[in-house]
Amino acid sequence: MNVKTALILLVLALATIFALVCVLLTRGRVPSACQHQPPEQEDTDAGRSLVFADLTPEEMVRVVRYLQGNLGVQLVDASRAKPSDNCIASVDVQVPAKAEVLRFLDGGGARPPREALAVLYFGSEPDPNVTEYVVGPLPTPAYHRDVTVQKYGGKVPYHRRPVTGKEYVDINTLIQWELRKAPRFLAECCESDGTDLAILTTAPRGFKSGDRATWFVLFHNVAGTGYYVSPVGLEVLVEHRDLHVSGWQLHQVFYNGQYFGSMEALEAAFMASSLEVIRIPKPRADAVLGSMRPRRPPVSLGPLQYEPQGPRYSVRDNYVTFQGWSIAFGMNPNSGPRLFDIRYRGERIVYELSLQEALALYGSNCPGGMSTRYLDGSFGIGRFAYELVRGLDCPYTATYVDRHYLAESDTPKTNQNSLCIFEHDAALPLRRHFSDSQSLYYGGLRRSTLVIRAISTLINYDYIWDFMFHASGAIEVRVHATGYISSSFFYGQGTDYGNRVGPHTLGTMHLHHIHYKVDLDVDGQLNSLETQDMAYELVKDPWSMQNTIERPYLRRERLEREDEAAFPLNTPMPRYISFASPKPNKWGHPRSYRIQITSFAGEHLPVSSPMERSISWGRYQLAVTRRKEEEPTSTSVYNQNDPWTPTVAFADFIDNETITNQDLVAWISVGFLHVPHAEDIPNTVTAGNSVGFLLRPYNYFSEDPSVDSPDSVYFSGEQDAGACGVNPLACLPSAAACTPHLPSFHYGGFLNI
Q1: Omega of the bond prior to 204 within 30 degrees of 0, cis?
Q2: pTM for the whole structure
Q3: Is 64 domain-assigned?
């Protein structure tokens, strides 16, 4: 080898080493951190949304102190109050009347006084009752007024009050005392002395107004799992109407198809061998039916949604803005999420969009299951919206917001991070077209939406409440159901009421019906209801008169009265139903928003049922009524425990008033029939178990407003689609080549149970 060859090889070796070092350095380089850019400031007057804001903990405390000092009666903290005591049941914001709010928001009027609505239980009065007071002005209360008669037409009888946590504790104590009277039976039946059994309430509580007798279902309770799918076959009926706990009694006992007058009678039947006992050993934690513990260790991480340049939405207090949208949001402790003053491009589309009620109605051949009609608002849809799990319940980088409430205690509580807001890329075009004819081009827009979400855990079920805002001007509302099914003990003809999902577990059929209030203000308060649908007409072909053609045509109709605008559940209704403004768009059509419902609801309770009026909102998939300040909600928390004489009966709202050029409200019911099956164990999945509705612009604009979206993509065959200046997608390799800042995972949701 000569010197020249050696030098060439040396240079090549050095070049190779240099290249390898560069590759290694490049691979090992940590991407730079994402640089957040502030979102566009679309509304500098966010403070006006505070007219709708939920109460702060400080305001709740001041209301409690005011009531304690100004009612002239002794008030016991509701967390320890007996039925015979007086207590403050709840305190929430009193949203001002719509006319006052609009004068403030639109007319330059004064800000309405801030007030609270306080619900009190007066159990020690000569005539025990529930009373509601408006207290104000906040933050320094100086007055209160009784609004009970104004709202409900009379005093609210005391037996209608929701059951408090303290009442449940006292009932549990009574049941445990009674279970001791059948020790041999419990040992044989359940390998238990009763103290380790879980007790689940049913509702309503009797057969007529004034009743307060509840069936309680008993389950094996294994720590860390859902007891709801492990019934032991034992159910007890407790009479707890008396204001004194000492007057409560266990009235009946049910086991494996037989009824007994007491636990002593059940024990006697067992000892006499006249009772068939199904032995159900206590499940092991590693083999219990409802365990959600992972069965496989984690492997590679899944996809992560993040914003390379920070959120493109803005949240301030109770106000969120996003690409032309602005929304005031809140949470009613009873009925759940509520949104106000929803605007797009500065124009109000919806004044109020709020959840009203969630009904779960069961069937079974066991007494607890067959009598259950849960009205979840009486338990607290908003109150039981707990902390969300970052990265699973919502995207890891979502904005999380605390919610505060005061219920069954004189001290406010906080559900931290219980509402989330995020931009969601659906990985689906909102619109697109690939042109292969005449000219070559591609145009599209990704479907990116703003989502406001909360999740309520109501005993066994978890409801995911979604409110989504699209670049097309559409509002989408969806509810997803998950959590545990409720079950009965499997015996006899149980499969007439569901499917067997475990050795002794019947997944009981039930229906979910959800009700919403939508106060649309389409280009102003005065709207009319218009419908459109198709029909066929048989006509002669103009160019060939000897032939005929079936030609589809559009049938348009304006509905004049409320009775016409009440569409019964599960019956055909016009495919296009719109709130129409008297003002036209550019093309001469009324500016409108269309209501589009997606639901597969079960059958409504027969109208002949004595409790049907309490859920009469469920008669209709859609009902449109004149908006009235005295008809703020379609139901009441008092309907659960007295459905036979409902405090609020929605059917009375529909009284055939004119609905032409009026301030209108759409009341929307969605739901589904759920027949539990093997795949509902351990949990019901959200896939296929979601329903909802859309509010879609219909001739409201002159064109699709999403054409103004900064996310639009367009390039032609003559352009370089890989150039960042031509196609924003080509900018992603550099613009998104950064590491998102992920906050440390923390969860405090168990602290406030």
Answers
A1: yes
A2: 0.93
A3: yes
